[in-house]
Structures are given as C-alpha cells and as structure tokens.
User: What shape does this take?
Amino acid sequence: MNDLDVLIVGAGLSGIGAAHRITTEHPQRSYAVLEAREAIGGTWDLFRYPGIRSDSDAFTMSYPFRPWASRKAIAPGDEIRAYVQGAAADAGIDQHIRFGTTVRSASWSSRAARWTVQTDERGTGVTYTCKFLYLCTGYYSYDAPHQPVFPGAEDFIGQVIHPQFWPEDLDYAGKRVVVIGSGATAVTLVPSMATTAAHVTMLQRSPSYVLAMPEVDHIAELLKKVLPAKTAHTVVRAKNMALLQGIYELSRRRPGLARKLARKGAVAFLKDEAYVDKHFKPRYHPWDQRLCLVPDGDMFKAIRNGSASVVTDTIDRFVPEGIRLSSGEVLEADIIISATGLTLRRFGDLSLDLDGVEVDLADTVAYRAMMVSGVPNFGFCFGYSNNSWTLRADLSARYLCRLLAHMDAHGYDVATPTLPGKVGRKPFLDLSSGYVTRGIALFPKAGDRGPWQVSQNHLKMAAGFRRNDLDEDMTFSKVQRTTPVTA
Assistant: This one.
C-alpha cells in the first residue's frame, strides 16, 4: 500500500523512534518508513571505523520507552545498532520499512491535502502519497563527506582513508598512522588504533575540548540492582540530562571557569601542563563547538603510554613518506586517515513544491525546531547540538502525535505553521564548527521569539512540552470534499 497517513523518511535512531510513537499513540494510522540503505541504524550502520561510539551518554541517547541494558554509558556503535534494530523488531516496525528507497521529491496538493512523494526504489521509480510527511534523514551526506584537497596527495605511497568509507579488510597492525582532525571521530580512532598500530599521531590544525567521562555509569549500575529496569532508566536519564545541561549552561555563562575545569581534567590525566596548553587548549570557548568525550580518558592514556601523540600544526603538502608540515617537520606514515568532518545535507536533498511552486527551504523559518513556515503537514527531526540527539528527536515525535490527535479531534486536514510579522532570523545552529559554517545557510532559519526559536535547553523544552499551545502561529483548515452521487 503506497497511500498512507504518515510517511517517515529514514530508519535510523530518529526514524525508528518516530515510528514507535506512531505505532503506540496512533495505532489506527497507516505508515511506512522509507530507507535509502539496506539496513536499519542510519549513522550506526554506516560508520564502521575502529572504536566507533556515541559522543553522548547512552542513557540520554537511548529511547525513554526502551531501557539501555548495556553497562557501557559511552556506547560502541555495534551496541547502538543492535539496540535500534531490537526496538524496530519488538514493535513490528521492521515490517513497515521499505529498504533501498531514496526519496527524490515531494509535491503538496492543496486540493487533495496530500503529499505525492517520488522515490527511486532500487532503480525503479515508485510513487507514494501521504497526509503527513516526516523526515528523519539526519543532517549530513552519507555519500560525500568533507574531504579537503591536500597538495601532493598523489605522491603519498601509502593509503589515504576517510572514516566514512572504512575498508573492512584494512590491516594497520604495526603500521604508522596519522589521523588528520581533532573532533569526535579523531579522538575515537586514535586510542582504538593505538592498541595495535606501531604509533598513531593525531594531527590537528587547532585543539578541541576533550573531556574524560566514565565508560560505566556506576550510579546507573547501582540503580539497576534496586529498581525495575524502566524506573532505573528514567532516573538515570533525568540525572544525565541535568548534568549535560548544567555543563552547557556553565560553559555559556562562565566560559572562563569551564575552560579551567576542562584544562584541569586534561592535566590530571597527562601530568604535563605544557603539553595540555599546546594541544588541548582551544582558542574558542567551550560549546562554541561540540565537546569531545573520551571514555575513561582512553585517548589521554594512549598519549601517556607512548602509543599515540598529538601534533598541532598545519599541512604544507603530502610527500611520499607522509605529511610535511608548515614547520618543515615530516610525519612519516603508512596510513593517513582524513577525519576531516561531514558535509551538511538538508533533508536528504529532496525537492519540495506546494501546488507546483518550488519551496526554497533556506527562506523558511523553523517552527518548534521540527516544522517550517508556510509548508503544510510537513515535519523534520533535528536533535540538539549540545545534548543527546534523541532527546529532541523524541520530543518532536511526541509533538507530531499530539498535533495529529488535535487535527483528528477538530476534523482538520491541514496544519500550516504561519510566520507572524517581525520575527527576526538567525542560523538554525549557533556552533562555529567547520561542518556547520560550511552548510547551515541551506537550512531553514531560526526565529528570535516564541515557537520559532530553536532552543538548546532540553529541560526547558521538556517542561513546556504539554503546555505548548497547538494553535499558536498554526493555521488549521479543512478540505472541502464532494460527496459522490449514487444511483
């Protein structure tokens, strides 16, 4: 059946969570999940590099309705993938997924109050129609990561790899490895590869904030022993939400103190203030970019034991034996890993039109961080930048369910966010990370007031969730239908 009530695009953490909410709160509705790849999991199925793990704690990254059972609070990618797959199988969501299906375009008909969605299903064009279109496509390109052009790259005699396309058969045992980058991927790769490589060097243009976090949440382990699993999960999630929000608020309100605390943590592991000040003292304030978490300080430990090191410099060019730096030093390498970041991708690059008129999403404004001005019956999932993605993903899915119930109760067919006059506009994300500044202009804007603001305060958003006025800046309408004449 290709005519549906709700069409969800993407079978990753967000899409499966949204499908679960539709299944449990609107069991009477028909829905399907369209997934371009051949597996459930999204990010956690795509990335397979050594040590791949979440960059936020597992209890807030996981669903509120499905307790996180593993002991690891900083979860490995394979455990996250299995968790999402289990959530889909247990709720029967996997039976609603159409794999190998890439969405190309969506056209809204005001007369029919429906979307017509054109897809490519393993090389064959397939059309779907739906009352509500909800995108859980993530925010980056699966096909085209950010890959700078390095002068002399063709001269290097070893292998150059991007983590997004990790070779399954890569043997780096006893090899000299240079990882270019200083973000979450780099700080994950370095300690993981250092256990078997001859040596791993993280080459960074400038430092990032790296914070050590216990791999096992001992409070969570204690609560699991004395409370039912779901209750323990809820309590630990609340604790970690408050902790992460507190770190963010401290960083924004007292950045100097946050910098000192981050430095103190690094010095405690490395025992070398000069090394920390050279390689782990960023020029920007905490949370101007995302913080990098390292479980039990594994990266710091690899540096201390000599299996890894950090070099802060810029690249002059690649040479046959490795990388020549601007300082003139040559980093010898057998393998170079370009952990240079993502390419932002807006809503899977699909095109939208309303009654044949193309929508420029860059000219729209986000409504409650999940719909866009002037576009009816259309939503998207975009998690927090300063907290676990799933926290806002689940709020957005629950809001969608509330909105659908409200429309049912009043007989509405169409819900369109309607932008009032004099709402200021700013970027959807306020991070200064390179991948954000390169592509955020393509996304809807954030407003400066009311439901048009894109808040990064989950505690505030969650507290106001049930009080949100569904009618605020929302235009509802009914479609005039003609009753067929019967003989």
Q: What stands out?
A: DSSP finds 13 helices and 25 strands in the chain.
